[in-house]
Write a structure and sequence with these properties.
This protein is an alpha/beta fold. It is built from five helices and five strands; from the N terminus they run βαβαβαβαβα. The protein has a five-stranded parallel beta sheet with strand order 2-1-3-4-5, with helices on both faces. The chain is globular.
Length: 122
């Protein structure tokens, strides 16, 4: 077992959520990169090469489901786990097949559950 830090990309337009997730995952030994918009995702994924992506559905500039679908359709990111983090209740039952997300966490989220899922999937 090697001890390389898990690299986590967090995409959410709520700066408080970005800060909370970043602090929590950093304290768990992860390397965290955040962005508040969807237009930077493709470039960040290619340059950062995350082990896992946490993605909000309702971004200000894009729909997270479309980002998820595009990432899951691309050869180089198809196997990167994506956790949808959304306040849209029932999202996982209506849309998870659309974009092939690996997991769904509802806002407000339990920090322990979030950390557990990141380490389980990454």
């Amino acid at each position: 077992m090697h001890n390389r830090k898990k690299k986590v990309l967090v995409i959410d337009d709520d700066h408080d959520i970005l800060e909370i997730i970043s602090i929590v995952l950093d304290s768990e030994g992860c390397e965290v990169l955040t962005t508040d918009n969807g237009k930077d995702v493709e470039q960040l994924v290619r340059s950062f090469s995350p082990d896992i992506i946490l993605l909000d559905v309702m971004l200000g500039d894009m729909d997270g489901r479309d980002i998820c679908k595009a990432l899951k359709s691309a050869d180089d990111t198809a196997n990167t786990p994506i956790i949808i983090v959304s306040a849209t209740h029932g999202w996982h039952t209506r849309h998870e097949k659309y974009c092939n997300a690996d997991h769904y966490i509802s806002k407000p989220f339990d920090v322990t559950d979030l950390v557990e899922q990141v380490f389980k999937l990454a």
